[in-house]
Amino acid sequence: MALAFDTLGYAKALRDRGIKAADAEAMAEAARDFIMREIATREDLRQALETQTLRLTVRMGAMMGATAGLLFAALRFLPH
């Protein structure tokens, strides 16, 4: 999902606060080019959450397998 950044509105807001038009436009373009590409979208966050969920599931499975293995190994050494 792409984010829309209103460079025209941003530049206008800067001009309204006393910034020269050329400087305001340059700042708006810089904000679009450098700041906006670093903002995470909902899709980015959803993918990160899915990745972490998968990692935790694999780790929990590995821990349960290791625990079961240790339990069965310990049971072999108990007197019958």
UniProtKB/TrEMBL annotation:
Q: List the transmembrane segments.
A: 56-78
Q: Write down the superkingdom of origin.
A: Bacteria
**Which UniProt keywords are present, listed alphabetically?**
Membrane, Transmembrane, Transmembrane helix
Descriptive protein name: DUF1640 domain-containing protein
The scientific name of the source species is Bosea massiliensis
